[in-house]
Specification:
Layout: H1 8-23, H2 39-48, H3 59-82, E1 87-91, E2 110-115, H4 117-130, E3 138-142, H5 150-157, E4 166-169, H6 178-189, E5 196-200, H7 210-225, H8 236-245, E6 250-254, H9 256-263, E7 279-283
Parallel strand pairs: 1-2, 1-4, 2-3, 4-5
Antiparallel strand pairs: 5-7, 6-7
Helix pairs in contact: 1-3
Bound molecules: S-adenosylmethionine.
S-adenosylmethionine is lined by residues 1, 7, 9-10, 13-14, 92-96, 115-116, 119, 143-146, 170-172, 175-176.
């Protein structure tokens, strides 16, 4: 990320989530705060032109993927809460709104938003501007993964690792170093049984077909020009094996076919995720 600047990709992801609320029927991910968190001006502009971010042939795939990954994370979170998990760690939260619409009774699910300090400061200003109150069950944990670990950040924030947690980590791993990603996964893997994680990742360019490679390169150019170059890629089979070695007993890699089958079947508008989409669901 550019030094001390809030994440531009976080803003783009939030615009896609908000546009999904306006453009897609049925919605894959219902987020009643997605528009409000954009602020008065941002919300009005999106309502006036919901297609403002639909600037390339990739746009609808990205919008679908942003919706599907949040949906899967919150579906998995609900299962984790049923297993008795009482802490939700949103890693690289961006403008994620879960903590402000937490549906569980107070004290049942404590939320921790972990993010780069610059993005977090910007988000807090956006929340204030939008008049969205900070709930008592939310704690902010500023962490720059280039110089700190998730473990350190959560310890300072008062998160109790021994009690277990569910982690979502959406749209982030590709922007971190491989070392930071693996350190984070090992830490999550050391959580007690019942814990789990949902994260997405970029597939290694060497595994892509020429057509996929062209789409990958267009995306890579765009995020690099926003100051957030892609840094980490995975081969699905090797990542699945690594997660099992770290102690995850259930490891489920979802590629585009599985995601489309689960969330985009039988739609009349043809909305679906593109072939670069990969989501990992891992439970302890
Ligand atoms: C594409 S956004 C995703 C935001 C959110 N999860 C979503 O889906 O809308 C990437 C997020 O990763 C965070 N991030 C990128 N590099 C980081 C770093 N070195 N340390 C901490 N957070 C980082 C950004 O601040 C941003 O919130």
């Amino acid at each position: 990320m550019k030094e001390n600047r809030p994440s531009a990709t976080a803003r783009r992801a939030a615009i896609r989530r908000a546009a999904h609320q306006l453009l897609d029927d049925p919605k894959v991910f219902e987020d009643p705060l997605a528009l409000r968190i954009m602020g008065n001006e941002g919300e009005s502009a999106l309502r006036a032109d919901p297609r403002q971010s639909e600037t390339s042939p990739l746009s609808s795939y990205l919008r679908a993927f942003v919706a599907a990954r949040s949906r899967r994370a919150e579906d998995e979170l609900a299962l984790a809460v049923r297993r008795g998990v009482g802490q939700y760690v949103i890693v690289g939260a961006g403008l994620d709104t879960f903590a402000y619409r937490n549906p569980y009774p107070q004290g049942v699910l404590l939320a921790y938003e972990v993010d780069h300090p610059a993005t977090q400061t910007w988000k807090r200003a956006r929340l204030k501007e939008a008049g969205i109150a900070l709930p008592g069950d939310l704690t902010f944990a500023p962490v720059d993964f280039d110089i700190q670990t998730l473990e350190e950040g959560l310890r300072s924030a008062g998160c109790d690792h021994g009690k277990g947690a569910f982690f979502s980590w959406l749209g982030v791993t590709e922007y971190l170093t491989t070392q930071a990603v693996m350190t984070t996964l090992r830490f999550i893997g050391s959580s007690p049984p019942g814990s789990g994680v949902v994260f997405d990742y970029m597939i290694s360019p060497s595994l892509l077909s020429p057509a996929q490679r062209a789409r990958f390169e267009a995306f890579a150019r765009r995020v690099a020009s926003a100051g957030e170059p892609l840094q980490t890629f995975f081969e699905p089979e090797a990542l699945t094996r690594d997660l099992a070695v770290m102690g995850f007993g259930h490891v489920e890699d979802n590629g585009p076919e599985e995601i489309n089958e689960r969330y985009f079947k039988n739609r009349s508008d043809g909305l679906r995720v593109g072939s670069l989409s990969h989501l990992m669901v891992a439970r302890l």
